[in-house]
Amino acid sequence: MASSTKIKPFSVLFVCLGNICRSPAAEGVFTDIVKKRGLDSEFKIDSAGTIDYHEGNPADPRMRAASKRRGVEITSISRPIRPSDFRDFDIILAMDKQNREDIMEAFNRWKFRETLPDDAHKKVKLMCSFCKKHEETEVPDPYYGGPQGFEKVMHEHVELNGQSSY
Fold it and tell me: What top-level branch of life does the organism fall under (predicted)?
């Protein structure tokens, strides 16, 4: 009789500051790619923020519009990163260096109060470390700019790199 061992899905958490622009866009695009390739059952995908200011809110309407123009629906609701994310996710992708630093500071606070894997900090990587289409090291935050910033994030940092890098 054949073994029917279920393989745990590979889990990816995208993280930006408020979880309303960059990380929901990355989550939406990656989810879209995974679904189109029929790999839904092989991945667990989510996003979070390093702050809880926007907790419970949908993604920024400008990011949802830029995403929708590309046929990608962003449905995530903002939440802050939490200690369990270090247990539940295989990789945590920070959108910029400050996000990575904030995630690491949170990990260093939580590891004394929570049971977290000793090497959980190794899960935290920069999103752009997987980018192949450009040399930038960070995904720029479009929040305080105009609509063109959201288009740039979707096109240059999420859409192109997500399509070719994963």
Answer: Eukaryota
Instruction: Based on the residue annotation, tell me whether 46 is a catalytic residue of this protein.
Output: no
Query: What was the pLDDT predicted at 118?
Result: 84
Please confirm, yes or no, whether 21 is among the known catalytic residues: no
Other CB atoms within 10 A of residue 147 CB:
12
Q: What is the pLDDT of residues 78-127, one digit of tens each?
A: 999 999 999 999 999 999 999 999 999 999 999 989 899 888 999 999 99
**The one catalytic residue among 16, 21, 128, 131:** 16
Of these residues, 21, 22, 60, 100, which one is catalytic? Answer: 22
**pTM for this model (two decimals):** 0.89
Cβ neighbourhood burial of 113 (10 Å; 0-12, 13-18, 19+) = exposed
